[in-house]
Amino acid sequence: MSTVISGNIPETPSPRFQVVLAWLESLTKKDFNAVGSVMSESYTHKLMPRSIGIDDRLLTKEQTLAVIQFIFGSLDSENHSITGIIHERLEVDDTVLVHLTSDGTSLTGNPYRGDFIFWFEVKEEKDGKLRLVSGKEFLDSKGATGYLETEKLAFPLL
Prior knowledge:
seven-stranded mixed beta sheet, single chain, Nuclear Transport Factor 2, Chain: A, 4 helices
């Protein structure tokens, strides 16, 4: 099925926003190698809010990819689309802020819907390529916990 990122995307995205788009598009395609390729080796990620049981630790690139594979691995991309709509974006220097909603269907047929705010820091690395060096993700608390409960999944790292 199709994978789609749409919404508030400029006709000519900035180089930093292109990196964020590549990350988001790779997520919807469940192409985890491509997701990792736009992240620096020292990438760190913070999940929020703490009110759903997420602690204050920073996740490494490997831990972040494990969480991504866990969540997106539970989605059925063969029979259903995984979509993301960018509602708002803000770019300041090396920081890209994105408000995104996403929809999908689990392997068991349950809906997956989320509302997210991502803060990414995008920097040029020694090889000259722009990569994500850090991210913060504010999850839709009700959507995230509801999905995990419906699917009877235990969130990794909690």
